[in-house]
Design a protein that fits this description.
Layout: H1 3-13, E1 30-35, H2 41-57, E2 60-65, H3 70-82, E3 87-90, H4 99-107, E4 112-115, E5 127-131, H5 133-147, E6 152-158, H6 164-177, E7 184-191, H7 196-210, E8 215-218, H8 221-233, E9 240-244, H9 248-255, E10 261-264, H10 267-284, E11 292-295, E12 298-300
Parallel strand pairs: 1-2, 1-3, 3-4, 4-5, 5-11, 6-7, 6-8, 8-9, 9-10
Antiparallel strand pairs: 10-12
């Protein structure tokens, strides 16, 4: 049995676990909205925004939760092709592992718009909408530098290996800090895979081995909140911790002075723009004005909380 036959048989047995079938109107377009893992609040928000824009555009939506599994997200794409969706809007879990399935969709004539995470190795993707994560990583590091003009020792918690945002944010942080390494020393650097519980344990290990840093730069808010918990357990409450994603919980922590800052990358705007591009092409073959749409992230601190996309969700 070849790969495609296996995946089709998986669809037939119902093991794909796509969203429950809905009685779609025959005259409406149907798009697939796929995110890497609904276990992360960031992707819950992103899928909700995809859903809202699909409704605004008057199209049906098939929802896909990759469940942090490249084979699962790949199989969901295969199922969508069998179901003959009109377009795909996807944030791929791994830019390399998802490339074959996305390429298969493109070859089948289904327009694909990626969000948040680019897949550069596939020709024919309609567009990518995301944040400039290199600039986001640079902004995060620059905020730390501004807080410690005389230098600092810091931890750096990196994101999931193979994920485009993790790669780019890491690059941005090092773009700023590497030329300043005499003043700003990364004394502990390790991935925590974007996960809060893992960040808690990784930070605990870093503190045990290296002592208290001046600051901790994290590639997302879940890791920042895990690092915050580890520091609080040791009464290291003056360590400045920076996150990325501007989740409501992180915004509350910034407001309350527990986090030094978080980076806003406007995921709702990314999601809605991607759906608009996909639907316009599926309906009218309208080519996007730009194939690459990158929003510029900003650091959110106490002084500019009003710039956060999800401030209205805070309590």
């Amino acid at each position: 049995m070849n790969r495609r036959e296996f995946l089709l048989s998986t669809v037939a047995t119902g093991a794909m676990a796509l969203a429950a079938p809905v009685a779609f109107a025959a005259d409406k377009l149907t798009i697939l909205g796929s995110v890497p893992n609904l276990g992360f609040p960031f992707f819950v928000h992103m899928l909700n925004e995809i859903k809202a824009e699909a409704q605004a555009q008057g199209v049906n939506l098939t929802e896909s939760d990759g469940q942090n599994s490249a084979p699962k997200q790949t199989a969901d794409i295969e199922a969508a092709l069998v179901q003959k969706v009109n377009a795909i809007v996807i944030s791929p879990l791994d830019v390399n592992a998802l490339a074959p399935a996305i390429e298969e969709a493109v070859k089948a004539g289904v327009p694909v718009v990626t969000i948040d995470r680019r897949v550069d190795g596939v020709e024919g993707i309609l567009a990518h909408v995301g944040a400039d994560n290199v600039k986001g990583g640079e902004a995060e590091a620059q905020a730390m530098v501004a807080a410690f003009p005389n230098g600092a020792k810091l931890f750096h918690l990196q994101g999931q290996p193979g994920a485009g945002p993790a790669i780019d944010r890491n690059k941005g942080v090092h773009n700023v800090l590497d030329p300043l390494k005499d003043k700003y020393q990364i004394i502990f650097e390790q991935t925590a895979n974007f996960a809060r519980a893992e960040a808690l344990s990784v930070t605990e290990a870093g503190l045990a081995a290296n002592g208290k840093p001046d600051a901790i730069i994290c590639a997302n808010d879940d890791m920042a909140l895990g690092a915050l918990e580890a520091c609080a357990a040791r009464n290291f409450n003056d360590v400045k911790i920076y996150g990325f994603d501007a989740l409501p919980e992180a915004l509350v922590a910034v407001r309350d002075g527990k986090l030094a800052g978080t980076v806003e990358q406007f995921p709702g705007q990314q999601s809605r723009t991607a759906v608009q591009i996909a639907v316009a092409f599926a309906r009218d073959k309208a080519e996007p004005k730009e194939k690459l749409v990158l929003l510029t992230p900003i650091v959110i601190g106490k002084d500019n909380l009003d710039k956060a996309e999800r401030l209205n969700e805070t309590k």
